[in-house]
Design a protein that fits this description.
single chain, mainly alpha, Four Helix Bundle (Hemerythrin (Met), subunit A), 0% strand
């Protein structure tokens, strides 16, 4: 069975590909609009499910709380970028400038999770917990994706 770290990395790899495709688009095209919408929904659902599984456990543990708090605050920062992008005309120079900033921050965030945060959690979590968290993530993500598609926020995370 896949553990939470492998499962999250699968999403991260897909997100990197999505960012690359968006970066290759130009102007207010239907392609850019569709790719960005899919990315926004996917990343929003991913972050919420990640917070409800892995980070919920990390925030309860004094040895992992600092790393968990840091990552959750970065999720909020990325969410703010996504909202700004959603409200900006895709053909404006401001959209692509903000997209580049968001992309840089998000890629930094997922690299940091994979290289720094996940190894700490892997070391601290009891045997079997990473697999249980992967199951919880899989259970939560579809509901969070549906919520993101409707443009609803998960109030428990704000």
């Amino acid at each position: 069975m896949t553990d939470i770290f492998e499962r999250l990395k699968q999403d991260h790899d897909r997100h990197r590909e999505m960012l690359e495709k968006i970066g290759d688009t130009s102007g207010d095209s239907a392609e850019r609009e569709e790719l960005f919408k899919k990315f926004r929904i996917e990343v929003t659902a991913h972050a919420a499910a990640e917070e409800e599984s892995l980070y919920a456990v990390m925030l309860q543990d004094p040895d992992m709380r600092e790393e968990g708090t840091h990552s959750v605050s970065e999720h909020k920062e990325i969410d703010d970028f996504l909202e700004e992008l959603q409200e900006t005309d895709m053909s404006s120079p401001g959209w692509i400038a903000t997209f580049k900033k968001m992309r840089h921050r998000y890629e930094h965030h997922i690299d940091e999770e994979e290289e720094d945060i996940f190894p700490v959690a892997k070391k601290e979590l009891d045997k079997g917990v990473p697999e249980d968290l992967a199951a919880k993530f899989e259970e939560r993500k579809p509901a969070e994706k549906e919520r993101a598609e409707k443009g609803e926020k998960n109030e428990a995370l704000d």
